[in-house]
Amino acid sequence: MIPLHGWNGRILRVDLTKRKTAAEAYNADFALKFIGGRGFAAKILWDETKPGLDPFSPDSRLVFATGPLTGFSLPSSGKLVVAAKSPLTGGYGDGNIGTLAAVHLRRAGFDALILQGKAEKPSYVTVENEKVEVLDAEGLWGLGAIEAERKLREKHGKDLGILTIGPAGENLVKYATIVSQEGRAGGRPGVGAVMGSKKAKAIVIKGTKNLVAADPNGMRTLGMEGYKDVLAKPNYAFWKRQGTMATIEWSQTNSVLPSFNFREGIFDEAEKIGGTFMETIKTSQKGCPNCNMTCGNVVTDAEKQPSELDYENVAMLGSNIGLGDLKQVAVLNRLADDFGLDTISLGNVIGFAMEASEKKLIMEKVEWGDFHEAKRLVGEIAYRRGIGDLLSKGTKAVAEKLGRDSPKWAMHAKGLEVSGYDCHSAPAMALAYGTCSIGAHHKEAWIISWEVTFGRESYGVEKVDKLIELQRIRGGAFESLTVCRLPWVELGFGLDWYPKLFKAATGVELSWNELYAVGDRIYSLIRAFWVREYGSNWSRAMDQPPQRWFEEPLTKGPFKGATLDRQRYDQMLSSYYERHGWNQRGIPYKATLEKLGLGDVSQQLGKLAP
Ligand code: SF4
Fold it and tell me: Are 267 and 259 in contact (CB under 8 A)?
């Protein structure tokens, strides 16, 4: 047993039913096996939730988890992971948020916060170092996330971190998020709705303690050098100007820009929503704490309000719904942030509704690119009014209700809507969506940029190997260290920084191979969670991307006529399973779980584990 440095070694538990709080210690074995963030969250959810639990039950757990680097002064260390059993997918769900709440939670002396139970009436939680209270949220419930945060800041002060939900979370929309700092949001698979089900409007955290690193001088020096290294990167100035928005042009050029509910990979009005145009209406820049490459582009929207744009928001609420006016896209984006709706799922659901309207599967007339109808739908969804009630359940559920051939063009994997890359001609990215541990999201492997460079046509094992490497780095290490992936992805901030920073923080030497092993452990643990939930209904069909990409060719652009090849996709999937030590249904073998130090998980899976 080693002493803990870098980690605080404590988790705060808040039971809203009993109005009780407790600071619970954890040991070095837990820290070293799961690191933090996603690793902690996955293990807590595995240990503390019974299979088949209703995500909206008071017994559900909502976990906010930081990592051992969170809060130290080093590049992009101001994030935390929010996680819960997902009401959208029925499986493991999480997301990360750049927020001062992450830094303050650590400074309050905790590495994670577990919210459980259900408050009798709308409430919010305040944490001020050791003092934890559950307060009445009267006057806050019903407010948008942005206004609620402003009111809380007026009341509790500026130097603290706040996480809130908007009306979508309160109304249990299944893709409601948790929001912070007026536009940073996370928890795509309905984590905000889980918070709403607990009648928790917000969490306000103020921490004033010093974070103690194993090597304080080393930590300071490395952090400063890290910041300088980021500043010196050749792409730095351009990144500061456009952030992820340049990806609109890149995706258009490479025919992967989602357009018209992923029917096409190019959009005729792409220029009008791209990074270059965005620069002409940009007013300021926002970002996460401890980041010197801030990427939130604030523009003035068509209603003269500030809205923070990035690629995903614009692709999903722009080209994917046929809307080619960036200021109008920015209105939809601002409303989504304020309501606490995930912009990616929202863009999918609206695109799906537009296609359903075109095909006369719904009575409403919602035409492609109709800003006013799209705006109306955003409100209807947040408040679950009219057709918004059905649309609030997510694309998979809507398709199941509407029937006919609509499940083929319901763009999701495992029930989570696809994020912003069309995969008609990108098999590795399709596999990344199919196997991502929360459903179809790019955060664990943005393999499309590598795939575009190294060859779109191949379905070879080199793509499977690359995918696993990226998932280990991004979905495993970064999500557990709880650092932003973008310094590495976008500017080439070297991977060698992370073991050095980890050692300075914790005193523990971990090579990248050892970090990979942590990633593998987390992937198999999360996979076990899904299998435990789905039982005998679990099959490799869960790892399939949407049918549209296999069956409906692109009709224009340089990849006109392209579709995915189902047989070859399946071969890649089989190779993926083999490399993980999972059987051909995608279930970890007992021996794999034991090798990864998850013998308890293997035992609990019982007969489900082969
Ligand atoms: S690069 Fe962007 S997302 Fe990452 S920490 Fe900085 S502001 Fe946040």
Answer: yes
